[in-house]
Write a structure and sequence with these properties.
- Helix 3 crosses helix 4, helix 4 runs parallel beside helix 5 and helix 9 packs across helix 10.
- Strand 8, helix 5 and strand 9 form a beta-alpha-beta unit.
- With 498 residues, the chain is an alpha/beta fold.
- The longest helix is centred in the first third of the chain and has 22 residues.
- The strands form seven sheets. Strands 16-17-18-14-13-20-21 form a seven-stranded mixed β-sheet, with helices on both faces. The chain has a six-stranded mixed β-sheet with strand order 10-9-8-11-12-23, with helices on both faces. It has a three-stranded antiparallel β-sheet with strand order 6-7-24, with no helix packed on it.
- Bound molecules: adenosine-5'-diphosphate.
- Adenosine-5'-diphosphate binds next to helix 7 and helix 8.
- Keywords: NAD, Oxidoreductase.
- Pfam families: Aldedh (PF00171).
- Belongs to the aldehyde dehydrogenase family.
- Homotetramer.
């Protein structure tokens, strides 16, 4: 691992333009007037003070969204018109890509170049995908009997509360906002308290694009206050959430004990990355390494349990260590950097404590394991071998650059061990044997299986988990249908011979 000092960054940090709540088409202070600080994880300095929304603000935002849904133009526009406006929104996002990318890079410690060329174009892409879907929402016709016929109408579900995490502030916001808009819903977005800035920027651009007031509202603030107020709100018709499994449970409970609104949950993971003997080690080891440490390991689909078949084990591990040694940790605005700081002090300490668990429980620390001796929340890419399935680092989601490596012998064994987790989000299967690839893909209980690739996303490819990784899907047409509900309309037919 190499480290770089952030003073070498020559990027001009943009002026922060939007720090207030966005309700009913206006930037406003919170009712309480309270603010909170968003911190730059590179240097622990304050980036900006942002309005701290709470229950009263959520009430105002939901009221605006309710009015925009019940009486406003958005759900009543022709789908073509919604499509036109959403495409404009996508264009505006691409016009401002540098500025938005800088906000996410600063707020979340993400690599600026990756956000600029990956996350933000993905946001625009997803908007275009759902803009194109807006006029392809249709139900079915039902020939029920000789006396009855019917059809189904797909209607927007209503006011949607969207609770977003901090690791991919832009994509995870738009994976929910775009389909909700295409469906004709109105939304109240609660971005993560660590990364509030880009959501406010999107609200501003939504207005510029012509999205009517009240359709997109953003309440920045904390989870147990603003987030809880949204998920327990009696006038919210649906909650879309991405975040931890623990908070997913709280949200489901809040929904169940308020108005029984449906929720969709995209939660944690502990994904197996399985490598069989027949692969090209020089190609697959870098993929496995990046699969675990991409976005500093702050990604729910991190391939954090690496299973390597015994025949290539030693060679593969050697290559992983070489990767780790040349991996540059440092300022995310420096184009040479491959890994920025962890999001905040809490996560930083949590990751370090998992590393301690790994050592104490008897895993062998091969490389990394330390934080960098400087300001900011930087942690070395860390590789443990001799990890057993029972160890904490093999079971719990670490959300940091920590890879647990395990050896296996047979297909049957690895399927069993890969499934030995409460999670079921993703899995990687690396082999040139088609039969093994298909067998493992069918046998792993996870929502996404990547064969000979990893992190391969597309707006058309549904994404979500099995088991404690959640339910329902973002992206694809499944991602649209969860913001729609089905109405069956039935009429009698008299004297029909058919
Ligand atoms: P992570 O573990 O990735 O930080 P969390 O699940 O804690 O993720 O947070 C994801 C989102 O959920 C954030 O926007 C956060 O503010 C919100 N959140 C946290 N606690 C609650 C809660 N009790 N009710 C609703 N939202 C919450």
């Amino acid at each position: 691992m190499q480290s770089k000092d952030s003073s070498k960054s020559n990027f001009n940090i943009p002026k922060i333009k939007f720090t207030q709540l966005f309700i009913n088409g206006e930037f406003v202070d919170s009712v309480s007037g309270k603010m909170f600080e968003t911190i730059d994880p590179r240097n622990e300095e304050v980036i900006a003070s942002v309005a701290e929304g709470d229950k009263d603000d959520v009430d105002l935002a939901v009221k605006a969204a309710r009015e925009a849904f019940d009486n406003g133009p958005w759900p009543r526009l022709s789908p073509k018109e919604r499509r036109r406006i959403m495409l404009k929104f996508a264009d505006l996002i691409l016009e401002h890509v540098e500025e938005i990318a800088a906000l996410d890079a600063m707020d979340a410690g993400k690599l600026f170049s990756v956000v600029k060329t990956g996350d933000i174009p993905n946001v625009a892409d997803v908007l275009c995908y759902y803009a194109g879907a807006a006029d392809k929402i249709h139900g079915t016709t039902l020939k029920m009997s000789r006396e009855l016929q019917g059809y189904t109408l797909l209607e927007p579900i209503g006011v949607v509360g969207l609770i977003i995490p901090w690791n991919f502030p832009s994509p995870l916001l738009m994976h929910k906002v775009a389909p909700a808009l295409a469906a004709g819903c109105t939304v109240v977005v609660k971005p993560a308290e660590q990364t509030p800035l880009s959501a406010l920027y999107y609200a501003y651009l939504a207005k510029q694009a012509g999205i009517p007031d009240g359709v997109v509202n953003v309440v920045t603030g904390f989870g147990p206050t603003a987030g809880a107020a949204l998920s327990s709100h009696m006038d919210v018709d649906k909650i879309g959430f991405t975040g931890s499994t623990e908070v997913g449970r709280l949200i489901m409970h809040a929904a169940a004990t308020s108005n029984l609104k449906p929720v969709s949950l995209e939660l944690g993971g502990k994904s197996p990355f399985i490598v069989f003997d027949d692969v090209d080690v020089d190609k697959v080891a870098p993929l496995a390494f990046v699969g675990a440490v991409y976005n500093k390991g702050e990604i729910c689909v991190a391939g954090s349990r690496l299973f390597i078949q015994e025949g290539i084990y030693d060679k593969f591990v050697k290559k992983l260590v070489e990767m780790a040694k040349t991996w540059v940790v440092g300022d995310p605005f420096d184009p040479n950097t491959r890994q920025g700081p962890q999001i905040d002090k809490i996560q930083f300490e949590k990751v370090l404590s998992y590393i301690e668990h790994g050592k104490k429980e008897g895993a062998t620390l091969l490389t990394g394991g330390n934080s960098l001796d400087r300001k900011g929340y930087f942690i070395e890419p860390t590789i443990f071998v001799d990890v057993t399935d029972e160890m904490t680092i093999a079971k719990e989601e670490i959300f940091g650059p920590v890879l647990s490596v395990m050896k296996f012998k047979t297909v049957e064994e690895v399927i069993k061990r890969a499934n030995c987790t409460k999670y079921g989000l993703a899995a990687g299967v690396m082999t040139n044997d088609l039969n093994i690839a298909n067998t493992v893909s069918r046998s792993i209980r996870a929502g996404v299986i990547w064969i000979n690739c990893y992190f391969a996303f597309d707006p058309d490819c549904p994404f979500g988990g099995y088991k404690c990784s959640g339910f329902e899907r973002d992206l694809g047409m499944e991602g649209l249908h969860k913001y729609l509900q089905v109405k069956s309309v039935v009429t009698p037919i008299y004297n029909s011979p058919w």
